[in-house]
Amino acid sequence: MVSLTATDAGGLSTTATTIMKPNLVDFALDSTPSGLVVLANGEEFQTPITITTWANTEINVEGKVQTDDNGDMFALHEWSDGGAKSHQFIVSSNMAQTPVVASFRHYRGDAVVLIKSPSDGASFAVGDAISLVGSVAGPDGNVLEVPDEMLTWEVNMRNQTHSVTILKPTQGNNILGRGPQPTDFESAESNYIEITLTIATMVNGEARTVSKTVNIFPKKVDLTFDAIPSGLFLDIDGEMHKTPAFLTTWENHAFTVDAPSQKMENGAGDLVTYIWDSWSNGEDRTHEFVTPAHRHHDPVIADFRVLALGEELPETFASNGDNSSKTTIIASVVGVGIAGVIGIIGYIALSYRRPTRHVSSSTSKSSSPRTDLDLYSPRSTLSGPPTTPRFTIASPFGAADDDDYPIDETRPM
Predict the structure, then answer these.
(1) What are phi and psi of 6, to 5 degrees?
(2) Digit-coded pLDDT (tens) for 52-86
(3) pTM greater than the 0.85 cutoff
(4) Which of 26, 111, 225, 302 is the S-S candidate for 96 at Cβ 3.0 to 4.6 Å?
(5) Is 408 part of a structural domain of the chain?
């Protein structure tokens, strides 16, 4: 409706109104066979359908892979107007008499989901590129042309009892991620990655899903950490382990190792202070250890020496990963000669800004010499997934750049 008002010098006015109506036209959509579902401007319509709209309206049409009640599948082959499988046309006045028809190919049996990459049973190292590539085929094995948004991927880290999601359901194809790190050493022995690809089809307008799952497995490496003298404790990835420590992890897993100063009874039963002297790999006392590629390798050994009389134990710092906390170890030793007997008086003050360290549950302390590290309060070990592990996931696994991607779900199997 259009209104025009005119007012003269005396203040009198008059208004003229014209009602303008759109040029309504009908257009028809159909399919071969008829009764299947097509999309027009994103809305689903079961054919045959006649739609009333305005002349010269732009309409986007596409067909969907769908299944009937018998489980037979139909995939779009071509449109009668010669347009692409997803294309646009402009509504004209003669389209009611000449419907736009979607021709579907008929496949007997359900659609087949194919995962081209990674292959089932493939192995990976931490940080390896993992490409998620899939497709859809008809029951005859011919690959169908389907839009990427029809494919939905989900990636979980699993063991026999638990599952944690490291990639939420994500639509698309050719998705790139990277092999995650294990949650800890205990779970490294049993965890693997489960990758599921799901497609959504239509059954008389109702959704139905078909899925394919493959499992990929980490490249495991056996590690041995020891000390001289053996029986001392090492800080391995934030947990205290009595040496020798036998651990299994994954290739390229990077973690911090530290050889803290500590007190332990020597062979004579005297409580003496041991301080780090060197590592067999030539690294600093606290350093990052990157798990090598081969399954077995020589032990990594921390060589300790006894703190000498009058020697001051240096203040030492060990980061917990956020570069904000420190571990301070202070000792004083006073030597007194009494009848040829050396008395050693020492103390170790341990202060932490991070959670209490864990003494590895594999250590049997009942038969070991007394050590001041036994004062560490143990925390429960992993019986399922930990509560706050993080994984490095490459774009586009939910991040714009390589970043820590938190586990978002923990569920029993």
Answers:
(1) -120, 140
(2) 998 889 999 998 777 777 767 788 889 999 998 88
(3) no
(4) 26
(5) no
